[in-house]
Amino acid sequence: MNIRRCIFGAVFFLGIVLQFACENNLKDVEKISAKKLLVPVDKSVGVEIIYSDSARVKAKLITPELLNFKTEKPYIEMSKGVTVIFYDQNQQETSRVKSDYAIRRERENRVELKRNVVVTNIKGETFKSDELIWDETLKRFFSDKLVTITSKNNILHGTSFWANEDFSYYEIVQSTGDLSLGSGLNPE
Predict the structure, then answer these.
(1) Which of 60, 163, 166, 182 could pair covalently with 94 via S-S, beta carbons 3.0-4.6 A apart?
(2) pLDDT tens digits along 147-176
(3) What pLDDT is attached to residue 77?
(4) Read out DSSP for 170-187?
(5) Are 114 and 133 in contact (CB under 8 A)?
(6) Domain spans of the chain?
(7) Contact 74, 108 (CB under 8 A)
(8) DSSP secondary structure, 63-113, as one string
(9) 124 and 89 in contact (C-beta within 8 Å)?
(10) What average pLDDT does the segment 115-141 reach?
(11) DSSP character for 51?
């Protein structure tokens, strides 16, 4: 029984020492919580932004809410969804991009569109993915996520892809799907 009492006593003593060793100083906790980082944010609602080059409208961005974070690496967040409409030189719509969420990294000239990303082009093709990146400098969209492209007679799936801004040209990686080659083929 003596050995059990010694072991119990040692464990009890060690438990008390550890309890006091792990106790936080309330003043230290208050100091840390008082040092919350304040980030200046501009909030705009019902936003429509026109992108132009040489007095020609190239694109229009529409979002119900835009948060402009003025940090060391500034960014714009559109957490309530976004629609971007692209136009050709004749001001005709060439493509439309929609997503449930978007973030624009200002210094990188890059927009990340996420959740339920849907793109339609002038040919009537529809592109769907969970994520799409718009590189404003290269004037390209790309994604390393699964993509589905639907046209009048075809449905393609791929592991990734890239497209020009108006989605008139695209390349899809590891594509699978139903492809209609036209009615001019002889089935014999």
Answers:
(1) 166
(2) 999 988 888 899 988 998 888 888 888 878
(3) 95
(4) EEEES-EEE----TTS--
(5) no
(6) 41-178
(7) no
(8) EEEEEEE-SSS-EEEETT-EEEEEE-TTS-EEEEEEESEEEEEGGGTEEEE
(9) no
(10) 92
(11) E
Could you give the CA distance from residue 26 to residue 28 in angstroms, rounded to a whole number? Answer: 5
Taking phi first (over 0 means left), then psi (-120 to 50 degrees means alpha), and beta for anything else, what does residue 46 get? left
Q: Hey, how many other C-beta atoms are within 10 angstroms of the C-beta on 162? A: 17
pLDDT per position as a tens digit, 90-126: 899 999 999 999 999 988 989 999 999 999 999 899 9
- Look up tokens 């639907």; give the residue: 150
What CATH class does 41-178 carry? mainly beta
CA 157 to chain centroid, in Å, comes to 20
Would you say 157 and 138 are in contact if contact means Cβ atoms under 8 Å apart? no
